[in-house]
Amino acid sequence: MRAAVLYGAGDVRVEDRPDPKIDQPTDVVVRVVASCVCGSDLWPYASMPAGGTGRPMGHEFLGIVEELGTDVTGLAAGDLVVAPFTYSDNTCDYCAKGLHISCRNGGRYGFDGVDGGQGEAIRVPHASGTLVRLPVSADSALLPSLLALSDVMTTGHHGAVTAGVGHGDTVLVVGDGAVGLCAVIAAKRLGAERVILAGRHQARTDLGRGFGATDVVAERGEEGIARIRELTGGVNKVIEAVGTRQTLDTALGAVLDGGTISRLGVPQYEEGPLGPAVFMRNLTLTGGASPARAYIEQLLPDVLDGAIAPGRVFDQTFSLDRTPDAYQAMADRQVLKALIRP
Q: What is the reported pTM?
């Protein structure tokens, strides 16, 4: 099969790899119908040291079940399924608490002998606990929004849930990438009355307004914090969807004492302002990697009936062989989120 492999910063190659096969009785093989490039893929794309082995890429995909292990239940050959961005057994104590990201038997695509989703096919471990069957055909117009449930929509929802967003709230979303835009959808879905989107790319912030953002703040740093406070007087709930120290500082500067900051962006810093000044403000720092599997079935009905359309974040489609172009286009900010079709 053909699949994308990262060999170092800026070096994505689409190459022939062995076809996936059942290894454990809980596995299935999925023929990929659609996958995509994640914003978090751009971090290793920018910084991964060159190596001779390479790392299979892609953790967001949906496809058709082709082959099943003997212990797989609840799925059948021919089913269209969506995969959360990590696999899990859905039975351990962490999964029972809705923390599938910490599953004791779970893992990540592209590691430990498991291929990535940016390919023609993939072996999915713990398939019964991981995959969610979709009640549509593989040519459905809803496929982009269903694919978004694999990561960006469930991640945006995680930010809104952990920030405690509810009816009538004013919420700040920092970041106009796909996760931030999906956080706007999630905040409005949970009843937020006002959503301020901090971002400076007009095509993206225009989409954010379409998703329900009521205000856009393009300024950065202290100027941006001052503008947010001018608009709102300060906010109690912030979703930080980028992961840089600057965006964390924006969140801390805009939030009111006693407020909550949910961090969704994978942190690109090791140290932060957690000393006495922050301590005295009684802030709650929450968020983290989304337990996507816990949210897919909650959000699926709203996608199916058109109440939310997170698939609008996909603004360009690439063939699998053009995956390197998709990475470069996203890194250059020419594309918000690239959809890949094998």
A: 0.96
